[in-house]
Design goal:
31% of the residues lie in helices and 23% in strands. The protein is of the alpha/beta class. The chain has a single domain (2-214), classed as 3-Layer(aba) Sandwich (Rossmann fold), CATH 3.40.50. Helix 1 (52-63) packs parallel to helix 6 and helix 2 (87-103) packs across helix 3 (116-127). It is globular, with a radius of gyration of 16 Å. The two termini are 21 Å apart.
Length: 226
């Protein structure tokens, strides 16, 4: 079980950013596994922090013991500012990382995103020393430059639909083959770009990828929150 807390906004470089913090249900003394910032799909094509795939992936990560912050980019929902074609959205993501670092200063930070949000998360996360793992769901390889990711030696996780009409599986597999290890890829049979009708399979695939890597790893204890 997870609980969405009362956090409703964070400070962003272009104004307030609407946000939701998912905190896991933990037994006494159990540490938070990681603090995760999750970025949503492209705002101009209807992407928000409430996109079904974002919601289900957030739940899956929280079930693994992670605290997960999803937020609306500038100009989306109640977030202030206007769409900035990726430049400002990278700044928004870094602001979200700052917010989570304040809340969970002694916990590993992970960067995650869906489609356009995957580019934002992987780019910002690859360049930020606080971030230890990178998570991409259906990355929009055709839209933006993923150069920062190509040089990263951080653990990378990808979940892709076999019938993705925006980023064909063959393109993702070719890109994936060029990346440095460690890396892991899960393919959801029959799924399109947004995993319509298959978001549960997507979230299960994501949880499976990460769970296999985390087994046997020591958890980092967080400071108690006020």
């Amino acid at each position: 079980m997870t609980t969405t807390m009362a956090l409703r906004e964070i400070a962003g470089p272009a104004g307030r950013l609407e946000a939701l913090l998912e905190r896991p249900q933990l037994t006494d003394g159990q540490p938070v596994r990681a603090s995760v910032v999750f970025a949503h799909p492209h705002p101009l094509y209807g992407g928000t922090m409430h996109t079904k795939g974002v919601y289900r992936a957030t739940k899956a990560l929280a079930a693994l013991g992670c605290a997960v912050l999803r937020f609306n980019f500038r100009g989306v929902g109640r977030s202030e500012g206007t769409f900035d074609n990726g430049v400002g959205e990278l700044e928004d993501f870094r602001a979200a990382l700052d917010a989570m670092a304040h809340l969970y200063p002694d916990t590993d930070a992970w960067a995650a995103g869906f489609s356009f949000g995957a580019w934002v998360a992987l780019t910002a996360g690859a360049l930020d020393d606080r971030v230890t793992r990178l998570i991409a769901i259906a990355p929009a390889l055709h839209m933006y430059d993923f150069t920062a990711l190509r040089a990263s030696e951080k653990p990378k996780y990808f979940v892709q639909g076999a019938l993705d009409e925006i980023c064909p599986l063959a393109n993702l597999e070719a890109f994936y083959a060029e990346l440095l290890p460690p890396k892991r890829l899960a393919i959801v049979p029959g799924a399109n770009h947004l995993f319509n009708g298959q978001v549960e399979q997507m979230s299960s695939a994501l949880a499976g990828l990460i769970e296999e890597d985390l087994q046997g790893e020591p958890q980092v204890r967080k400071k108690e929150q006020p």
